[in-house]
Amino acid sequence: MMIERLQQVFPNEVLSTYTTAVGEAVAVLRKDKLHDVLAYLNQNSDCLCEALLDLCGVDYLSQLKPGEARFEVVYQLYSYQHNHRLRLRVKIPAEDMTLPSATDLWVGANWFEREAFDMFGFQFAGHPHLKRILMFEGFEGHPLRKDYPIEKRQKIPFPQEIP
Amino acid sequence: MALKDIFAGAVVTTKLKEVVAWGRKNSLWPMPYATACCGIEFMGTVSSYFDISRFGAELVRFSPRQCDLLIVLGTINYKQAPILKKFYDQMCEPKWVISAGACASSGGFYNNYSVVQGIDEIIPVDVYVPGCPPAPEAILHAVLKIQEKIDSEARNTVELLPAV
Ligand code: SF4
Predict the structure, then answer these.
(1) Rounded-to-integer distance, Cα B5 and Cα A146, Å
(2) Distances (CA, A) of B19 to B11, B26, B94, B126, B151
(3) Would you say residue A65 has pLDDT above 90?
(4) For a FRET experiment, which of A24, B12, B65, B119 has its CA 20 to 30 Å from that of A71?
(5) How far is residue B27's CA from residue B58's CA, in Å, rounded to a whole number?
(6) Residue B61's pLDDT is what?
């Protein structure tokens, strides 16, 4: 199983593992050596996760316990070769939102990471073009953060301001 | 002796601007700016069953430069706003705007970070149509309201056209 191997190779990185009710393997990680973990899962012949199916952010503001990281970045990995899947939940503290970009391992991570940056403000170090993708340039704040005010209105962009 | 007695019903006297308004109101050229579900109602309105051509507004042009009636149907978000403004600016005077549906008029139930809370924050609106979506009859009613407005503008403004 991929998840046991991950625990053996990166014992300090894997905080916990579990399997969901429908049998999906999940590993909770700290972010320090995230790029090494992702590269291992991508390249090791027993893991060989060629596909990054999705990448998204989560804000746990309302369930925050003391000492826990507020944000999470979730990676959904899949291997065509072995037909196995793995979900990684990477803890991101609000004080330091930087994490390594996965664009060198999966080209498809590019737009996922831009979306996560747009909505939550994660700083993906090494991303070739980390700009907003859904909201317009000049949008203030990150709308999927739970402390973004619902009734906040942005300045409406006008044609001459479009680059 | 009054003019109407001299010509004995063969001639109608009126004002030029009222004749022009009469022509304009019966040949509106609508430009649908349909971004969401309300646009489907407009399709119903222009096709044979409800038949907007009974009111002379059937020739839908998809270039704002050829139209004088902008009908905004659907949700307008912040990224759409500059495009809508540009469309409006490209239309020649005189021009009228119908805001059809809850979304275009007020943002509807999209009280969130991405939707403009009513297109009147961007462009002037003449007639608002309630409904989610408004029934085709309601859009036809809005066209009639625009016609009334064109009429009354001609009657009540001091000078619409330069004197000939
Ligand atoms: S008003 Fe209702 S029907 Fe019209 S665009 Fe909005 S959600 Fe769709």
Answers:
(1) 79
(2) 14, 11, 15, 22, 10
(3) no
(4) A24
(5) 8
(6) 84
Alpha helices per DSSP H over chain A: 2-9, 34-43, 109-120
CA distances from residue B81 to A33, A131, A144, A146, B137 in whole angstroms, order as listed: 43, 20, 21, 26, 27
Determine the pLDDT at residue B163: 61
Token pair listed for A160: 């001459």
Residue A61's contacts (CB-CB under 8 Å, 6 or more residues apart) are A70, A145, A146, A147
ipTM of predicted assembly, 2 dp: 0.77
Which mutation among B33, B103, B112, B114 tests ligand 1's pocket best, with the greatest number of atoms within 8 A of CB?
B103
**DSSP state letter for A161:** G
The model's pTM: 0.82
Ligand 1 centre distance from Cα of residue A161 (Å): 28
Find the A141 Cα to ligand 1 centroid distance in Å. Answer: 27
Q: Alpha-carbon distance B31 to B61, whole Å?
A: 6
Contact B121 A156 (CB under 8 A): yes
Residues 6+ apart with CB under 8 A from A96: none
Alpha carbon of residue B148 to chain centroid? 11
CA B63/CA B43 separation, integer angstroms: 17
Q: What is the pLDDT of residues A76-100, one digit of tens each?
A: 999 999 999 999 999 999 999 999 9
Report which of B63, B130, B66 is spatially closest to residue B98, judged by C-alpha positions.
B130
